[in-house]
């Protein structure tokens, strides 16, 4: 017998032998499927801001897409960034504040090497969805402006643009908007560890600095 | 109400004061109390030590002795113990079903449905939180694990204590943490149990209470045994004894209490 | 082998192919220590530094967890849903695994099956060899700890680099993990500093014991490894059957490094880690972070489905591990232990774990869940099996159930495993005889009275040292283990029964 057949046979026998005396009840979905605030509402954006800042990440609020470039420029200036990497399809208007910095364009067809990524200071990306209650921003690999996974991982500074209409209140609302077919990265603050005396320290292997530019 | 008292084996043999106090308190509140003479033990020690088969006849015996409450002959069964009430309510039917005895399981459930821990009986069933007690002492309350997490008595014992005249109630730090008793746990894992006891005692002493009370004689035997060994001067008194106490009665403190312990280490008496 | 009165199905202890539920074979992996829990605990309890480290760390995490759990008004609804989803998974496990396999395969992954730890280790070793690599980077994984993969790789000449900070501390300290989530919870900052100074070749000799500085030292130590690694080995927190998606939940970014940069990714996963659908993750991604690290969400969660051309590993292998899980599944009560999502909330609230730490359990799964899961995976071979003592490593205080995000009734499982432990006895022990005698006394008021009467406390205490005497409760607890630290209650002048008979309940 192959291992596959053997393991499946064991599990079939076990499933039947250990079946509970009563048939399992249907899954009670009485938990909240939607949060208190509507997607994109001012209240949900406020909540996202508060929760992201709780992780000691920075949030810059701007009213319109046109103001993104200036906010990005501020993030870059404050971090002292000189070398940037962006997904090739990052919206052009957002790049207006890059100034004279060197910009590496990355795409699946023309990927930057890991060494190249290790040599840049900052990555600027868009995002797919943000979940306000948990202060989470989700990147879908390959989706517009979000790039390959390595982009938002290797550089030490991540500037992530979140559009207001992509902000939902709760985890269930967030997952419902995501397609698991693409690799997804859920980011809640900068990288962190609690492995030493369960004391939280921000900044380990992932980007040590996370700036969220929130539009709306 | 006609209420049968379930003394519990430990209460019967070693802590009769708590059983007497339960009886006297309920009588004072105008109820008829009876002591089913056939009673022995709920079988929790067997169950919790893994002797589920051996527990079956013990459970059957308990269900026979307290069966009249299922028929309505008695209105309720009360135990001065969260742990033993928990065993009746959460273990008896499980033990019976595991042995394939569905009839016993159903009967056990019927008995369990009318079996209450003392604070539950007083607050939920009888609807009283001021039982007219007087107890002029500084007291801290340890919520025993089984009353807290099996029975979910919540703050019922505290409601009762807050209404006792003269009683100064002080919060116990880390109150919800186990004292380390756990039945045979205290023997099988005595080192770990002692470490848990040490922390519980430290918290009790931090309150500067004279009395540590709880709804289980077993946990009080453990905490009191430790406090006594160290000659801390803090005694343990069952909740029932405090509630039974009035201006007219001698306080349990004066009468000697479960916290009263042997003067000599046991080894010396071999 | 455990059986119940209801006639449990045959559960096998050897690994011949019979298609029947099978325990984890003895001698494989890290599921059994060498000493009983009480003996091991005695040693650990004497370590005052350990006591302090554990007390501090578990205190912090308990407070954090309580805070973020209280924030969610629907926490109990989430727990109920989590429990029900897992019960459904168990009821359909073979079918869901086949569905997962089909979806992973359709997306370019390869699925392997392992009966036990050795088979899993062999599969992974061969996959690594096939790439030509002589080292792998690893994401913290309980499954690979369980199988002892690192040792197996080492024996094959392949270096395995742990990249989670706590795992790194354990690995560099030539130590073993003591906690599911924070394997180095038994180490404090100054001990970690010493380990780093001793074991990291390029470390700054002026390294301080500030956790930030220590984290930065780990970053520097591992950075080259991440950027040059060709093969990564991970576990998985969840696998979604209907999409073939895997999820890893982490904090530091080491997981992302391993899951993203190497060309080949090998994931070893216990068969129980499934959820049926993508939307079921909405429950577990709320339950897990709040229960484990006490955060609203962990810093990073990565999900991937097979292979994505142009992004991340271009070769993906998923190894599905039985290693005793079929035996757990065959137990109607016990299968709930497979619902565990390895959050370690039960460890953090357990008064036994807090004082003793994880090493005393002898298994990679310590704490309350380990005390039931470990003997269920391995079976209990008899009274001398160290795993026979694990179900007794609890005062049954119930704190674990309240903390468990998927409502595993751990106290009940502990009792069930105590029964399994008792039923493994081939010859009656002294305790067996005492319990039988007590049961006889307790089924008759007359006999019970006689037992009470016959027991002057002096006689009652005369039991041999360290042995539960053949006397009924409560005499049995008044053995010398008790009197080591506690006085014995003074015997009353009369029992409650005698008082009632004398007074009829009157004063």
Condensed summary:
By secondary structure, chain B is an alpha/beta fold. In chain B, 50% of the residues lie in helices and 11% in strands. At the A-C interface, helix 1, helix 4, helix 5, strand 9 and strand 10 of A face helix 2, helix 3, helix 4, strand 1 and helix 8 of C.
Q: What does this molecule look like?
A:
The complex is a heterotrimer of chains A (216), B (270) and C (507). Chain A is an alpha/beta fold and 216 residues long. Chain A has one domain (33-215): Rossmann fold, CATH 3.40.50.10420. Chain A has five helices and twelve strands. Chain A has helices at residues 3-17, 42-54, 68-79, 114-118, 171-176; strands at residues 58-62, 83-87, 102-106, 122-125, 129-131, 136-140, 157-163, 167-168, 184-187, 192-193, 201-202, 209-215. Chain A is globular. The mean pLDDT of chain A is 96. Chain B has helices at residues 9-13, 16-28, 44-49, 52-65, 68-71, 82-90, 92-98, 102-113, 118-125, 145-150, 156-162, 185-188, 190-206, 217-229, 239-244, 252-255; strands at residues 2-5, 32-34, 76-79, 115-117, 138-141, 168-170, 211-214, 235-238. In chain B, the strands form two sheets. Chain B has a four-stranded parallel β-sheet, sandwiched between helices. Chain B has a four-stranded parallel β-sheet with strand order 6-5-7-8, sandwiched between helices. In chain C, the strands form two sheets. In chain C, strands 1-10-7-4-2-3 form a six-stranded parallel β-sheet, sandwiched between helices. In chain C, strands 8-5-6-9 form a four-stranded mixed β-sheet. In chain C, a hairpin with a 4-residue loop joins strand 5 and strand 6 (245-250).
